[in-house]
Amino acid sequence: MADCCSPGADARVHSELGRPLSLRTAGDQQTTSTAVEPPADASAAAGPAADVSSSEVRAAESATPSRETTDVRIPGGTFSMGDPFNEGYEDDGESPVHEVLVSPFRISATTVTNEEFAAFVEATGHRTESEIYGTSAVFHLAVKAEKNQILNRVSNVPWWLNVRGADWAHPAGPLSSWSDIPDHPVTHVSHNDALAYCEWAGRRLPTEAEWEYAARGGLGGQRYPWGNNLHNDQSGADAHNCNIWQGDFPSRNSVDDGYLTTAPAMSFRPNGYGLYQTSGNVWEWCSDWFLPKYYKTCLAQGTVEDPQGPSIGRGRVMRGGSYLCHDSYCNRYRLAARSSNTPDSASGNLGFRTVAL
Asked: pLDDT of 177-200, one tens digit each?
């Protein structure tokens, strides 16, 4: 499935059909969690404070350097999940609002970065589905490729271009490199790629309920992680709380927030729990299958405890919106907003964050 936000796998040109996805590992690593303190004023306003924990997930392989994952402990609790403002798209199934009980868990403060994903690839030899297909979707104003490497515009979403050689290591095309933006979110990763990373790291993807609970940062019933107003009272770039489209989509981005495409994963102010950029920047994969009417099923059950999503669906859930979201066509950078794509889909605005086991 494809939508205005992230094109589906059917938009790709399959240059290497039939090649298996590599899921092999080169041994386990030791993963440690490093503290990121939530801002004092934000956590005070948000309710229960999040603690940061350290845990050894797996034993280190001597040939592979250890790496750090910055985790935030999210306290368990009950929250109202869904859109209380009736601002979403009907097909997205953001309503009805329903009560959900979430157990405590630990989630990464940021999305997985290019540098972190590079360590995974180096350790395992994993080839992403974008690399196997040979192409991926790049936003038309960001392409860095030779003309003959730009294959076609994606049907129905012409601001996306199929670019041969675009993948996680070449996020804007073959003339770009992840090493130029090591602290930015990794992109061009499918749900399957994210699962492979999680298996290697001894982690998992968040459920959709965990994601929204953590993304709210303790603020119930708000549009955004910081409240109900999109901008704050400061001037210039400081007035922006997240990385979304500024200007006339899709032809002109004024870059008022400082970024045309991705921003570093630790940009902008974190929410009350210490999570960065749960609105905008890149879409984030969740573990759940997507069904538009799933929330109606939840409402009928009363308070749902640690929901895992439907057993089947038409795609995997994506949350958070991206740098391409704009009110003129897509306001999915709201906390309640949800979308989906097929598990093999990838694009230049789609990443993920992880949860500790």
From this structure: 999 999 999 999 999 999 999 999
Closest Cα partner for 284 from 357, 349, 332, 200?
A: 349
Structure tokens at 111: 């999305």
- Torsion region of 49: left, alpha or beta (phi above 0 gives left; psi -120 to 50 gives alpha): beta
Q: Which CATH superfamily is domain 9-17+28-224+241-356 in?
A: paralog of FGE (formylglycine-generating enzyme) (3.90.1580.10)
Reported as a single tens digit per residue, the pLDDT across 63-95 is 333 456 799 999 999 999 999 999 988 899 999
Residue recorded with tokens 């997930």: 57
**What CA–CA distance (Å, rounded) separates 326 from 271?**
21
Q: Tokens at residue 79, please?
A: 């929250």
Cβ neighbours, 10 Å, residue 195: 18
pTM of the predicted model as reported, rounded to 2 decimal places: 0.84
**Which of 82, 77, 78 shows the shortest CA–CA distance to 97?**
82
102 phi, psi to nearest 5 deg = -115, 130
